[in-house]
Amino acid sequence: MRRILYPVNRFNVPLAGKWALKFIVVGLVAGLGSIIFHYLCQLGIHYFMDFMAGYRPPQPMGEPRLLPPTIREFNRWVLLFLPAIGGIFSGWLVYTFAPEAEGHGTDAAIDAYHNKGGFIRARVPFVKVLASSITMTTGGSGGREGPIAQIGAGFGSYLATKFKLSNRERRIMMAAGIGAGVGSIFRAPLAGALFAAEVLYRDPDFESEVIIPAGITSVVAYCLFCLKFGWGSLFESPPFKFQNPLELGPYLVLALILVGAGILYIQMFYGTANYFRSIKFLPNHLKPAVGGLLTGMVGFFWPQCLAFGYGFVQKALFSELTIGFLLALAFGKILTTSFTIGSGGSGGVFGPSMVIGGALGGAVGQVFHNIMPALVSQPGAFVVVGMAGFFTAVSNTPISTIIIVSEMTNSYHLLLPSLLVCSITYMASRPWTIFHSQVKSKLDSPAHAGDFFVDVLESFKVSDLMHLIKPVRMIPQDMFLLDFKQCFGEMTQHYFPVGDEHGRMIGIFSINDVRGVLFAPEIEHLVVMKDIATDDIIKTTPSEDLHSILKKFTTKNIDSLPVVVEDNPTQLLGMINRREVISFYNQKVEKIKLSRSEK
Fold it and tell me: Which residues of 462-583 form beta strands (DSSP E)?
């Protein structure tokens, strides 16, 4: 009975409850933030795009309008200048109160995770939400995941700081907030949790300690959001099905097109950002206004490239748009997103990526449908796969992207072609990413520097350093201090094991232990070395890992440890020095880094 109950006794129920409560609170705040942000976006679209410019972009079926449309006539000239006006207010908000809120918020959250111990200033989410809602509802091209991710991440960071949690715990809380924001605003709770764990790295790696906390926060935020705005997916789509393996050929062509478009998008985005950053004569506050004006110039000719664009993805799913319209939407969206966010405007990059990928997928699907209608009977299916493939190409997040697109469109029957396309786009575009704060792997993350140090040390044993273990002279226990002083000058060792008449180690002393009596001639005929040595010997064996012995070095601040036989702790093999353990570790780390760089 004791054995059965023992694991239960080890489970700390109060501690688990406290952590679960913290994650639930983060999820509630992220869900509430999603609701507020959604209201701000809907109101902004109504009063800016509709009331001022007479432009009423279509909505996805999962998000009906909160206010009835106006009867104002469409005015292209208002659209020309409206994004610039939004850029003025957005730039003033960001660069006056929280400059780190510029650009796309997910990248800032990734940077905080790796380099700032998960710390985000409390004001950043508020500034990000206001600036992003102004930017995107006045015509700027951006996504909603960046602002809402920073709401969840910012509150998670604030809560961890308030409770004086460690940097590791703050990072987990912050990442869980990212998952809650993404999972709620896109109605994709599973994908939100996976995205928060996957987006941190370029390699196919997950932050495993984030998945469960992000799952809790994402479920809570999703439920709160859907209780207000209704359940169901963001998009409605026909019952797509993959039934013919030959259809993988057109999907392969789509994958190659998505890779090229993804590289173009990243290069255009950061080329624009670098250009605006290099402009010194123009204050940062005004740069988003210039980017907004350039966005308005594109929108003057192609209004569909402004704001969110999700409604056009909805139409593409039902094949209601022409090939020319879809291509113009994709490449126009690349331009407007680069101008809007690259100039310092506030918004996310996930939403535009969905629109670009969906438009390209829809165009490719219709081309193959016209050529081979019997094989490609549902061109709208290419919209779903295109969304997943394109964002994978620009973000290095294949798994969470497949899931999030499936949840957003309720199209789970397309998992197989999505997996193929996302695998190809991921492998072909690994050198590029829209998230510059991503690191290659945990090995390259400052957040895991200590973990990696421990992992490397634990993977090696003292037996791996046998060639570095130095034989030392054992001092007889009955040797007088006078005799030790005579032979002391001939020895270079700093630690002196003491042995009995059978050669068994019974104690040890260091130079510091004899320093006080070394120049006391009145006792050198009376004191024997057994009296000076301590029998509380800190030792190691060949099977002990290097992390454990390094802890022994640091606990007592000693520089050398005796190595003894495994089954006989009195039989000395030699001494191992702390400096040589550290040198061995550095050599192994350099070797690991070199092998990774060659790959």
Answer: 475-476, 495-499, 505-510, 560-565, 568-577
